[in-house]
Amino acid sequence: MWFHEHDLELPVINAHEEIRWRRPSYGMVYSMLTNPAYGGTYAYGKTEQVTIYAGGEPRQTIRRKPREHWLAFIPDAHDGYVSWEQFERVQVAIAQNTLGRGQVGAAQRGPALLAGLLHCRRCGHKLLVGYTGNGHDVLRYQCRRGWLDNGEPRCIGFAGVALDQAVSKEILRVVQPAAVEAARLADAEQSRQLDDVAAALQRDLQAARYHAQRAQKQFDQVDPDNRLVADELERRWNQALNRVRDVESQIERHQSRHDRAAAPSPQDFHDLAADLEAVWSDPETDARLKKRLLRTLMRDIIVDIDDQAAEVLVVIHWQGGIHTELRLPRRRRGQNATHTPREAVDAVRVLARICTDRSIASFLNRNGMRTGRGNRWTQERVTALRSHHGIERYVPEHRAEQPWLNLTEAARALGISTRTLRIAAQHGEILAEHPLPDGPWVFTRDALTTAAASGVLTRVALHRAGIAVPSPAQTNLDLSST
Fold it and tell me: Cα angle vertex 420, ends 416, 424, to 5°?
């Protein structure tokens, strides 16, 4: 695909032992990369002829033998295009890109980021990707390999968007510290790729000019009276000259594209690295690039479903041997993507004890929470949410009868500052609820009468008693006499 993108060709030898340039195909590239001669190794006897029976009739066929059964295997027999170590790494990459049992497979264009990485904790099979919905565009991961192969019951299945987003957050958390260095390497890699294209085109031009000069010499040496041979040599010479002009045109187009397109500056790469999440979430970002990054950092992901807790259990096995466990809420039967997040419902359930619906909407918006449809919260939407979930509303007139207090009221009841009470609640000395990071604290009257609360009051009283005060007997320094 890289050769096609830059309109480059590869040399091949035809039946007449002549070198011809052709548009590369998958077979050409695969044959070159898997040939031991590419790594400077001489090999012989890599295949053998065997007899198979099809329909009761014997038939001869050729099959490839394992490397240990080759008749000859001599590393470093000649100069290779790459080192033997690099050749071995290429073979491993090709094997991993092959779809098969235990293999991740090559990164594809589909939106499923975790395709090929997920394995079922119950049966060990690899999860398959499916798309549901009216437009067949709703991502879903399913463990149905046992059902497809052996008719076994289906294991597990769940929506894939939430899992992809959670794993993406883990990836961004891991790679963010190295993002700037990766941006610098990306800048160098882009420059190297442009140089590779220019170098490849120059080699093509050199080869085309050689063939043109060779065709010209052959034409000059032919007897003019032999018109048939002269015409054929003239035709070959014209073909070689056309090849030279085509390559020269490719070089001009490549240079013009490179000149027109302003190369990103190092500062541009640095800015992208600083906002890596925006780059990752951009719809224009190639999905295959993100999948290759996932495969580079992760070995596999084990998933299961906790039906009682309605959660998806996720264990990420990183390449370095570290494991990360995640628990993601699983959509229950009857729920859909427009349902209000459970975190918002829990926050409203707690805040409704001390706040009006208008105040609750303000706190939810301040913490960046949205409704199930992505809207901002209003008093009316909070009221509708309370009514749907049966949450009682806050009545200021009945404040004295309620067992709940906010931070200011609780501090006044204990006779301490709000800062002291908040620190005690953060350390767990006094029980309190804090449903939103940027929101109020909720205390109960009973929590203020516990032994732990008494200990906090005692510590505050001792601290106040230990404050140093000026003594009348202290002699002041008379700085004016010095």
Answer: 115
